[in-house]
Protein: Protein nucleotidyltransferase YdiU
Organism: Flavobacterium sandaracinum
Amino acid sequence: MKLQIQNNFTTELPADRNQTNVPRQVHQSAFSFVVPKKPSNPSLIHASTNVANAIGLSQEDILSTDFLNTFSGSTIYPGTKPYAMPYAGHQFGNWAGQLGDGRAINLTEVVHENKSYTLQLKGAGPTPYSRTADGFAVLRSSIREHLCAEAMHYLGVPTTRSLSLMLSGDQVLRDVLYNGNPAYEKGAIVCRVAPSFIRFGSFELFASREDHVNLKLLTDFTIKHHFPHIQKEGVEKYLAFFHEVTQTTLDMIVHWQRVGFVHGVMNTDNMSIHGITIDYGPYGWLEDYNTGWTPNTTDNQHKRYRFGNQPEIALWNLYQLANALYPLINDAKPLEAILEAYSTNYEKEYLNMMRDKLGFQIKKEQDVVLIQSLTQLLEKVETDMTIFFRNLSNVTKDDAVIIAFNTIKDAFYNEKDLDETILKDWHVWFEKYSIRINEETLSDSERKNQMNTVNPKYVLRNYMAQLSIDDADKGDYSLLNELFEMLKNPYDEQPNFQKWFAKRPDWARDKVGCSMLSCSS
Ligand code: AMP
Ligand code: MG
């Protein structure tokens, strides 16, 4: 197995001079060298061939002992020196101080075909940032991360990738519901891959300590290596950088809203500087369209990170990043202007994304109202988001209202919920929709094809991940493999996977792991 190693981060930024691996506050450092804990009996459960290829590895490499040893943290790849990164963050709206890679260890950067990647093990043991926790991860949450990161990639949503999923062979103690019932679970390690793992919180840490020297070093490093097209200097450079982070973050959120993804823990330490989805914890997929939904039981009371609030929270997080970068800019006005543009831009992009979902190529002013009335209707009774939009593409220009309505009827969880008023509202909506698609120039089949490129047929429904976890716990990975294969082509019909194009079964409605998840992982 041959990787092309690069060590920009550790050669250009200041290292923590203390090399003891005990939880502590780390100052004036961008990283701490740390060695992964040797797993007692590592084994490979699954690897993403596509990610392996991207970093220059073959199928043969995946099956090698080198691969097993390197990506389980068993041995250190020659020429590399693993490290963990400090960062801070706002958790659930409150300042949390120093956090950092408590159970993530960066192995190295690699270069392949002129692209650079950082490879990071999650669950490979304690670091100086582990605080009171153990540094490990369990199989359950690692399967969720591995499957979902790759599913998101294939859906076209910007995300960190997942190279591999391994069992460590060790047991890890977790209290899933935080109710005093800890139990041992299988330990696992995922290797995540991203351009870098620099987060909003990385900048917040230095800013909060008024360490402007390292704030500048980190920002300059980030721009030089990850935003090389920014050719400006001084304040203009930092503003261009912030502007771009705002834009890519916004784009990512529009994608989340398009596919019905709820991140669950949008703390500023979980926001990538690249505008890619990071940290798959208690995330979930909307089944019934409900803007108030969050899968995260820890957020049950305020539902800060509910589906409908994600665009607003991203902006809140960007304000924190702006505050952190402020010492490099010393002028609030241009930062505020960028932040203020976010809302207008979001409205615009959201509208266009919804037009795509509805099959509108032509932009009409009245689309705003049509979309608003649709999202209101979708919330009236339990309606499956994925099935609704996918089936909507089967409506034709000549369909009578009742035929059109019947096309999407499968999306309702309980048809009995549809009282007379709601039925009437739906009929009114479909009348308007019919007029609207008749204004389009594309034929029915062309429109359908177009819509099917943005409305996935298959998403990683919460209960599906849970079923594969239950099997994997017993050592059966066939369902995990099946889901992985299916999610590679989420927009294709894939008749052999038709059974997964279905509403959430009733047993999964209020089940832990399916509709309710805690941060315990
Ligand atoms: P999260 O909510 O997963 O984004 O984690 C918040 C912080 O807690 C981060 O600094 C993590 O590295 C840390 N953390 C979470 N789980 C563990 C664990 N099992 N061991 C050590 N640190 C952890
Ligand atoms: Mg995190």
